[in-house]
Amino acid sequence: xxxxxxxxxxxxxxxxxxxxxxxxxxxxxxxxxxxxxxxxxxxxxxxxxxxxxxxxxxxxxxxxxxxxxxxxxxxxxxxxxxxxxxxxxxxxxxxxxxxxxxxxxxxxxxxxxxxxxxxxxxxxxxxxxxxxxxxxxxxxxxxxxxxxxxxxxxxxxxxxxxxxxxxxxxxxxxxxxxxxxxxxxxxxxxxxxxxxxxxxxxxxxxxxxxxxxxxxxxxxxxxxxxxxxxxxxxxxxxxxxxxxxxxxxxxxxxxxxxxxxxxxxxxxxxxxxxxxxxxxxxxxxxxxxxxxxxxxxxxxxxxxxxxxxxxxxxxxxxxxxxxxxxxxxxxxxxxxxxxxxxxxxxxxxxxxxxxxxxxxxxxxxxxxxxxxxxxxxxxxxxxxxxxxxxxxxxxxxxxxx
Length: 401
Fold this sequence. Notes:
By secondary structure, this protein is an alpha/beta fold.
């Protein structure tokens, strides 16, 4: 009797589309092609020097050359709890914090700890590409709740109610959103949180983009906006976006002590502790000022306006102005089926492939985040590259008269 070489569970996982696009763009660039990549959600700024200095100092200390607690250095867990109270008003003890190898491990740990096979997770869509895969790996069932550009990519309580079943256990809530940049108002956050509490649901809230909002739009944590949730809430976050630390790989989850203890047990077998040098860098980050993110926001805001203006000038493109994160998520359904360079792309995946092939610009198709008909572009790259890349797309697709 033969069996598959790769397990069905792992074989069914889709590759991270955003990382795949980024890798392809970098490979073409390495081969000498003038590719411009809008794929990865990665600030183009260096990590602030005081954070790098803290890492260098930590690397010199022999105690950081050894294993440390699987759940995180005690001083970092305490600093994360303090930072969370400072930034979102949510109070947690250090024992309620688990330091993870980036935000992705926090996502994986959370769903693996909370879900049993068949449990359903309400997944506002468009969603970040990793969420449904982490849910499925845990045996859960992602239930997509789609909100299009006509409603600002924001789901409503009525939509969530319509998707609710007796198997629903978790609502995943993300604001500001990747991939759309949508931000829920304080009133919307409170209404959704109170609804989830009334249904007895857990809420998993990813707050990685908490400091990246524009036009005076506030960030609102559902954990504090809806205290009715009690301890049935898990907060996910990390240093990657706020401090330009994507490669340092430090994230965390905050939740009730029993859930964090169970997730720590899981991590103790999966990866053990996050690299100590990275943890000490993260300690300097979360304990320090927010000057770095404020400087980045000035550049992101400028690039956001440039990109929205240039994309909106393309005939058939509807590009809502994002209020947070560093992505735009234009609706390209008005382009599909049109002849472009002798080809009629029927899906956003085909359109993205055509743009990469013809003008060497890498974007991520909507299929990575939900339905076809949309594309995601990150504006966390240099101004010149941004203008050049979107200019090439304009040239290929044609601007409105």
